[in-house]
């Protein structure tokens, strides 16, 4: 009897760890599903709430709908800020607005330190937000920081190389972002034939950089190229396509 009872008890004890492992897996799956959604909504709500509070401080009480309503209107500040930015853009597009902008920029250009900060920020925002700019054009692999080690980078334009005997005619500007913060990185000037273009969109490449490789993508050459320097000329993307759109 004892041997039979022992044989019945053994499977019951062995099933409990499996249940714990199963519950742990469900918990991790729930976190993976809900965490990105929750964090995204939280960040959006913080931005909307900040704009609402800013707009409430800018709007006179008689023009604020919340003065006459028994409840707050989420997103009202966002609409007010967007409308204000649109009005500023419309004003600066006119003759008077352009004259005011030129006068303001001349004043800033004569102010030490401020002119450097303003000039840098203006170039960054124009490159990222201007409709005529394509910012990051393609995702590539560059052999960095040493031979045999490859890093994901982004081609940002063609290089205006003016150092005789130091470069090649197909030099391009390459931005190599840091992980997980892609707002910092390295600006490098690399020969086009030393790059391996990837069959990835800029969004996919940036997602892979930010995740530190957790979000994995197949690193396939975009035009049938192999290692650096082994490109097929007939399939190469012309360097002229990288120049800024006027």
Describe the structure.
- The chain has five helices and five strands.
- The chain has 246 residues and is α+β, with helices and mostly antiparallel strands.
- The protein has three domains: 1-86; 94-129, no CATH class; 138-242, no CATH class.
- A five-stranded antiparallel sheet has the order 4-3-2-1-5, with helices on one face.
- The chain is flat and about 65 Å long.
- The total count of strands amounts to 5
Number of helices: 5
Strand fraction:
5-15%
How are the strands ordered across the major sheet?
A: 4-3-2-1-5
Rg over CA atoms? 28 Å
Q: Supply the helix-strand structural class.
A: alpha+beta
The largest pleated sheet is described as: 5 strands, antiparallel
- The outline comes out as flat
Distance between the termini: 91 Å
Question: How many structural domains are formed by the residues?
Answer: 3
- Helix share, percent: 40-55%
Low confidence ranges = 1-7, 224-246
Mean pLDDT: 77
How would you name the oligomeric state of the polypeptide chains in this document? single chain
Order of helices and strands: HHHHEEEEEH
Key structural traits:
246 residues; alpha+beta; 5-stranded antiparallel beta sheet; 5 strands; disordered C terminus
Describe the structure concisely.
The protein is an alpha+beta fold and 246 residues long.
Write the layout of secondary structure elements.
Blueprint: H1 2-58, H2 76-93, H3 95-109, H4 114-129, E1 138-143, E2 150-158, E3 171-177, E4 185-191, E5 196-197, H5 202-210
Antiparallel strand pairs: 1-2, 1-5, 2-3, 3-4
Helix pairs in contact: 1-2, 2-3
